[in-house]
User: Fold Large ribosomal RNA subunit accumulation protein YceD from Fluviibacter phosphoraccumulans.
Amino acid sequence: MSSADLQESFDPNIIARDAFAICVDMPVSAFPRLVDLLTSTNGVVRVTLKASMSADQRPTTTIGLVATLEQSCQRCLQPVTVVVDHVHTVEWVADEAELARLDASEEALDNPDWEFLPMPVPPKVCTLDLVEDELILSLPIVPLHEVCALPEAAPEPAEDHPFAALARLKRLN
Assistant:
């Protein structure tokens, strides 16, 4: 499938009710905020979206991302390959009040791959923005090579101390 197969936006209630699922390969260049964090725009991102109803009858959207991207190593500044294999589930709650209630209760999960978000009003989520946000959040905070081939620093020439000439003169006398 192509990026043209991905809907521009969706209503979480409708796609959950319909048990919507799609798998699309999208070019990295389709994500402008992500591109700013990369050294190359080559490659594709495999995007998988699955919607369903949770046990509590709330709509959920699971976002799966698989990509091989290039960022700049923060140690040697050379390109480093970053493999993204990320799955995240959003459970849409009715409003901010329900979100606060879930945060205060023990019902909230301690799973970092699952979060509760308030349903937007009107219930319309921009698909590319949601996917791009997840891509950015899946990147390492500080991309590094496992082992960097840093160039050896050239030994600094010994500089004469400002008073070295004076010390030599004192020794002569």
About this structure: The chain has one domain: 3-172. The mean pLDDT is 86. Residues 53 and 59 are 5 Å apart (CA to CA). The first helix runs from residue 12 to 17.
